[in-house]
Amino acid sequence: MPEHVWSTVEDPTTYTAEDAVGTGMFTVKSLNPQAFVVEANPDYWQADKVKVDELRFSKAGEGQVDQLRLARGEYDHNSMFMPDIEEAYVAKDPEHNKYWFASGAPISLYMNLTEAPFDDVEFRRAIAQGMDKERLTQEAGNGYVEQASQTLLVLPGQEDWLDPSIPDDGVVQYDADAAADMLTDAGYELDADGKRLGKDGKPLKLTFTTPNGWSDWTAAADSVKADFATLGITVDVETPDYPTVEQNRLTGNFDMAFGVRGGLCSMYQSFAEPLDSANTAPIGEKATTNEVRWQDAKTDALIDQLALAETPEDQKPIVHELQQIMIDQVPFVPLWYGGKWFEYNTRHATGWPSADDPYAGSDNNRLIYTSLVPAED
Question: Which residue intervals of 194-311 are DSSP H helices?
């Protein structure tokens, strides 16, 4: 903050900086409850690259209303989940209506590692084998998303970091029979009614929580429930509101839930957030990012080494070892890559990132808006 301006301000909460200095590529043109409009900043350091004169953000409608507006060409760009994208959007204007649903961070099955049976690595290995991720991607993601690698990497984008000794790119192949055998061998036997018993001899009955109204996650939770049922384990799906799910996951008040960690550009951050014991907390207290409560001295040591490794060449052997921990110890189970929903229309502008030209992530507006050019008439 510039001291010569703010040092004399008595109340910063009411002060308006009429001549504020900014470094962004756009400045505010107008704002009202229905629309937010910004215009190109002639003083931006790359002003010659910004061919977009104006951006208009309109008030979002309900899901289906916005989908209709998108299909009618009222948006040049949007980021929304849209069932049957080819028929509902592309087919309305095949020449101009395009989309690119790149893979984002993995969405994982989180298990509370402080509780039985999740504190048993053999149980977790069996569950990883028993998740039908191919069916899940169809039911929860309309076939738009891909199965996730157990390594915590987003593939193929991060394939340069993949430990070459790990088969199948780290995707754990679904095999319900093998998973059932693994559970039995680990001491979780079936009773006469086909119910899987815990080591205390009682039928296993678990709870899965997912936010109310998140239709794709609810479908995924039902898919997970069905996979557990195949193994003889009863799972109840509960759908409280999102703040409740988030609070319970952070404080460890859950059996199972979905979590989103990893897939970041920083390998240190990708592995430290969900796995470093410094990022967890006792049950009842809020963890920062390690919600599953994974605590392992070897993992912590590797993350400490990774923090000090300066080059990719120094980092890769450490990242390979962390991948092996994900494979061997299964702190949690990455299931599918979250879709980065990105629809765009080329009627007014071209140069959008795409599967054929992935020069930027769909949320990297700085690169996108310095790459767009007016469409030819």
Answer: 215-230, 242-251, 267-275, 297-308
